[in-house]
Amino acid sequence: MQKITREQLLAKASELLSNGTVSCVLGWGLGEFDYDVTPTIFKSVEELENGFVFNDFCGANFSKYLVNKTAKLEGKILVFLKPCDTYSFNQLLTEHRFDREKVYAVGIPCEGMADIAKVKAISGDGIAAIGSNGDKLTVTTLYDDEAIVIDTNEVLAERCINCKSKKHVAYDELMGEEGDVTQSNRFDEVARLEAMTPDERFAFWQNELSRCIRCNACRDACPACTCEKCVFDNPSSGVENKSPANSFEEKLFHIIRAYHVAGRCTDCGECSRVCPQNIPLHLLNRKFIKDMNEFYGEYQAGAEVGSRAPLVSYTTEDLEPGEVFNRGENNA
Amino acid sequence: MQRVGVFVCWCGTNIAGTVDVVAVAEALKSEPGVVFSANYQYMCSQAGQDMIKEAIKEHKLTGIVVCSCSPRMHEATFRKTAAAAGLNPYMVEIANIREQCSWVHKDMLTGTEKAIILGKAAIAKVNLNAPLTPGESPVTKRALVIGGGIAGIQTALDIADAGFPVDIVEKKPTIGGKMAQLDKTFPTLDCAACILTPKMVDVAQHDKIRIFSYSEVTEVNGFVGNFDVTIKKNARYVKEDVCTGCGACVEKCPMKRIPNEFNLGMDNRPAIYIPFAQAVPKVATIDPNACNMLKNGKCGVCSKVCAAGAIDYTQKDEYINEKYGAIVVATGFNPISMDKFDEYAYNQSKDVITSLEFERLTNAAGPSAGKLLRPSDGKHPHTIVFVQCVGSRCESCAEKGKEYCSKICCMYTAKHAMLTRDKYPDTEVYVFYIDVRTPGKNFDEFYRRAVEEYGVKYVKGMVGKVVPEGDKLKVQASDLIANKQLHIDADLVVLAAAIEPDKSARPLATMLTASMDTNDFFTEAHPKLRPVESPTAGVFLSGACQGPKDIPETVSQAGAAASKVIGLLAKDKLTGNPCVANSNELMCNGCSSCANVCPYGAITYEDKEFRMPDRTTKVRRVAVVNPAVCQGCGACTVTCPSGAMDLKGFANLQIMAEVDAICK
Ligand SMILES: Cc1cc2nc3c(=O)[nH]c(=O)nc-3n(C[C@H](O)[C@H](O)[C@H](O)COP(=O)(O)OP(=O)(O)OC[C@H]3O[C@@H](n4cnc5c(N)ncnc54)[C@H](O)[C@@H]3O)c2cc1C
Ligand code: SF4
Ligand code: SF4
Ligand code: SF4
Ligand code: SF4
Ligand code: SF4
């Protein structure tokens, strides 16, 4: 259950639209189902009142949308950002991907978002409606007469269980109280993978990645993947591949992508959230983050604008490769 | 489709001994694009090169692959050969079947197999090669020397004598560096000032040399042949061109108790000072932290006594912009701080001193007018203990000292010990050492004289502790050869402190995009073959900033650096390396990743307008590589996520083609 309500957000958005601070609002819009919330541009108070939603399924990270929207739309855009979204926001600014002047960022508190897959695991398919009541979700399905009541904590998304920060690292205005960086156990699962033998780990990933249908949703949702021309869409890159016709996904697609976002991935979790095949993609990226922390010192992408990530920056103070190797050995 | 010629070299038996060269030439014949394949004993010989030239003409080759030694050896040779036959030199690829093949394999079968694979990879690459033309850039015929020690002085003189203008930037009020502080110099024991000051005067009088003293470099832009440098001239509150160096101000200044850095704080100087009698430029400098006029607006004595009217309390820092074709770094060294070496009681007793302080104490122009007297009570010391390797070769104590050998301490300690015994035969002189290292012309003879003729007591072992007690210093040490503990009541203890690069060197290296090792010594382009060049084109190294050195070595390196600079400035135009990075602006995100990894600062950004498919225009930030600065290292190409950045001559696709050919 969110501490902030749709009405509060609606009022804020209407106010900023009406007083001319912004000319449009990037918010969550009504989708086909209650859990199927879609990022939407609202240009008037009327549009907002008809289509704006806020519920436990508003996981979408809007940062990436700013790249295209700021380039296309006139005037300022109001964007609502959860704490985790603000890291992607900063990372994109670090990479000069959008014009900060064209954005009015409102930080909103977040109590964690629900994972629809976990809901469906309890309620079964055929969800007709989902309501929210305190800490409970009430799920009505086509097959049951009575609504099924689910504790929101039971269906929290993985990234929210392991939330890394309730603190907003960027905003123009904050609704609610300032939070803190949280002590999260997000690397535990990576450690479990590290404990496997290479063969076990290979089997684990092959099993996961072989399910990939190459819809590209992970890349398309990833705020680090904003390239003007992605290598996977570029016939001259040598790694173009658009369908799961062979084992490219298992062997290369995800690994190349993980390397491309290394040092830039904020661990926002969008990749895993959008994957229709429920592949735990975040584990791959988190392994990179964990390694970088251990080899080069703690680093959180997007914690501040302009910070220079290990692997994608060079200074004369850089660690010598030998020292990095030693740290790797010590951890092994 | 290319028309490729393959030339397999025997290199006598070097290659042919372990690789079946005939089989290699035969196997490569059927590779895509290959229209000619041959083998020959020595491809690099005149006959071999003629064979290549003829084949290029006769078979209308558009690319050639030479299977031979490392490209480091003969790539340039074969490029010239190709060019002489009218083929673009960048259409030449080398398959290294010697260092990477015949020399590492013993068995003919494996050697041959690998040579064929390497040949295939080179053919796959040359099929994707495109002719390249190097760009040209003009050369500014002026050099900048940073640091005015003996290294900088020598380099500047040599460059200026060749007719090119040189500017020296020295952060202290005078040039001269550490050598100006020394007394006599090993191995010949001539007085440092007597050999240094004439050179300083030469510098001052040379019409091609300008000295910016009390100045520092604050910004460096540009690239080899075209550096754009900002120099900050710190306000010295004295008009340099008016001051005659008479010293009247120095005598009359009432603020007399300022520690004199030239004598390492062992005596005092006034707020307005000239570091030493032969300073160049011989101009007074006001210390703004000490001058009462500058601090509180009260005094003005110096201005009143200056007959020339040179004092100017309102002087401001001045910034000068100048263009240079070459930059020489000569920032030298300093002894490390002794603060962390409590065991030697350096901070507890005035009579524990460093070797550089010892130089001042024995120097006729020093605080005791050259008489060796104890700093604490001015008494003549009888028992003197020298400790070598204080903070040098300090593997276990990296936090305190340095892991490397400071190189000069064995020799100057022998010098100090010998001179002491020579001048004061009533003294007893001990030297504690780990090893005595005296390679160098007449060095070992020098050290042996100290032991044999002058009776200096060399003890192999380290001093464990120095404890001041009364007016004595109790020295506890071990004698490793006699295997016993020694207790000596000393009057003076002299520490041969390790030396380290000047602290300003690292920020300077960043400005110059020159690389340094972990100890902050500048690294050379090649440790053996290019010792006075930094890996950054147009930046050269002179003196102790590159590694510990004595004066003879410093001077030879200074001359070598000068000759490299002269060679560069003598050119009117520089031909660049065409194998540089290039960003495809249609694919570039403007993300700055490439600029963040470029070690040479070759990448900048531009906002560019693009026509979009829907006929709108979009302004996007895109990367632009300066081909004159880019060294073709390729760091940017592997960092660029979208593959917008690529390296000419080593394009991603060419490398992938090579890998594919090898893995096939
Ligand atoms: C105690 C002692 C005794 C020695 N005795 C002998 C001997 O007897 N015989 C012998 O051959 N060698 C001797 N040496 C070694 C000798 O001092 C060095 O070889 C020599 O000084 C090296 O010259 P250099 O110009 O490289 O460095 P330095 O003499 O250190 O000169 C560097 C100059 O650069 C200036 N500088 C530094 N940074 C900057 C900056 N960022 N911008 C502008 N200017 C800068 C400094 O102020 C200095 O003037 C002795 C050394 C010591 C410590
Ligand atoms: S890789 Fe996944 S977790 Fe990382 S930034 Fe992209 S979407 Fe977020
Ligand atoms: S996968 Fe790589 S090339 Fe594609 S969008 Fe992501 S970062 Fe860019
Ligand atoms: S979202 Fe999932 S299924 Fe789609 S491409 Fe990514 S990993 Fe594959
Ligand atoms: S190739 Fe190296 S030097 Fe050239 S622009 Fe790229 S990173 Fe810089
Ligand atoms: S790394 Fe690639 S995409 Fe980013 S600025 Fe450089 S060339 Fe452009």
Q: Summary?
A:
Chain A is of the alpha/beta class and 332 residues long. Chain A is 37% helix and 12% strand.
Structure description:
The complex is a heterodimer of chains A (332) and B (664). Chain A has helices at 6-18, 45-51, 65-72, 83-94, 116-123, 158-161, 188-195, 198-209, 217-221, 248-261, 270-274, 282-296, 321-331; strands spanning 24-29, 38-42, 77-81, 103-107, 127-133, 136-141, 148-151, 173-174. Chain A is α/β, with parallel strands linked by helices and 332 residues long. Chain A has three domains: 1-113 and 164-184, no CATH class; 116-155, no CATH class; 185-323, no CATH class. In chain A, the strands form two sheets. Chain A has a five-stranded mixed sheet, sandwiched between helices. Chain A has a three-stranded antiparallel sheet with strand order 5-6-7, with helices on one face. In chain A, a hairpin with an 8-residue loop joins β1 (24-29) and β2 (38-42). In chain A, α8 (198-209) packs across α10 and α12 (282-296) crosses α13 (321-331). The longest helix of chain A has 15 residues, at 282-296. Chain A is globular. The mean pLDDT of chain A is 92. Chain B folds into five domains: 4-126, Rossmann fold; 143-232 and 318-332 and 503-569, FAD/NAD(P)-binding domain; 248-305, no CATH class; 334-500, FAD/NAD(P)-binding domain; 581-648, Alpha-Beta Plaits (2-Layer Sandwich), CATH 3.30.70.3270. Chain B is built from 19 helices and 34 strands. Chain B has a five-stranded parallel sheet, covered by helices on one side. A five-stranded parallel sheet of chain B has the order 20-27-21-22-23. A four-stranded parallel sheet of chain B has the order 2-1-3-4, with helices on both faces. Chain B is of the alpha/beta class. Chain B is 28% helix and 25% strand. The longest helix of chain B is centred in the N-terminal third of the chain and has 19 residues, at 108-126. The mean pLDDT of chain B is 95. The A-B interface holds A 71, 94-97, 226-231, 234, 236-238, 260-261, 308, 312-316, 320 and B 506, 509-510, 515-516, 518, 586-593, 596-599, 605, 618, 620-621, 635, 639, 641-644, 652-653, 656. The structure holds flavin-adenine dinucleotide and iron/sulfur cluster (5 copies). One iron/sulfur cluster binds at residues 219, 225, 227, 230-232, 257, 260-261 of chain A.
